[in-house]
């Protein structure tokens, strides 16, 4: 374990400043950059690079950081859209800051879950849940039979149930 610790310390000491600069330029925010640099190195602890070459280590760090930036921007878009729709609601119905944080996290997790599903499955789910379309109309839109729409919905709902169990577990702990 000491070898991993020593190599991680060396990797961090060698590349942290560079990675922080890269993220500052990409995000235009030093606090977000510091958070994502930290998250990048946390990921490295779980999956250390096998390469010892300086340039390949930086490439590995940049790849992880790029993925984290995409997640960050996606989360911000979701949060912005939700806050815009929330602004249309009466102030008396506004959730507390804690509830807002939980809702934004849940939205992000649902979005990530939908992104992992096959395209037609997520599209069928969104058409049914957000647009209230009946299965027959969804089937026509997707160019499949109603039976296939039922299978798509069962698959999406199964993933929703799994996600709900995971989120319940996070909230209980």
Automatic annotation (TrEMBL):
PANTHER family recorded: RNA POLYMERASE ECF-TYPE SIGMA FACTO, RNA POLYMERASE SIGMA FACTOR FECI-RELATED
Membership in a protein family: Belongs to the sigma-70 factor family. ECF subfamily.
Top-level taxon: Bacteria
Domain RNA polymerase sigma factor 70 region 4 type span(s) in chain numbering: 109-160
Claim: Transcription regulation is one of the keywords in the record: yes
Keyword Secreted: no
Protein name per Swiss-Prot or TrEMBL: Sigma-70 family RNA polymerase sigma factor
Signal peptide (residue range): none
RNA polymerase sigma-70 region domain segment(s): 11-77
Keywords per UniProt: Sigma factor, Transcription, Transcription regulation
């Amino acid at each position: 374990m000491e070898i991993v610790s020593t190599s991680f310390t060396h990797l961090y000491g060698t590349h942290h400043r560079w990675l922080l600069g890269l993220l500052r330029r990409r995000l235009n925010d030093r606090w977000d950059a510091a958070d994502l640099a930290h998250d990048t190195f946390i990921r490295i602890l779980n999956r250390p690079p096998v390469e010892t070459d300086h340039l390949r280590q930086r490439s590995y760090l940049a790849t992880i950081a790029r993925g984290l930036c995409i997640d960050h921007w996606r989360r911000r878009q979701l949060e912005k859209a939700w806050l815009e729709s929330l602004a249309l609601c009466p102030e008396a119905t506004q959730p507390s800051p804690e509830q807002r944080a939980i809702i934004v996290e849940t939205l992000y997790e649902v979005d990530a879950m939908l992104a992992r599903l096959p395209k037609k499955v997520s599209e069928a789910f969104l058409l049914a849940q957000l647009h209230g379309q009946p299965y027959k109309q969804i089937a026509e839109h997707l160019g499949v039979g109603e039976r296939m729409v039922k299978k798509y919905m069962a698959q999406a709902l199964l993933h929703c149930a799994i996600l709900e169990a995971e989120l319940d577990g996070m909230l209980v702990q």
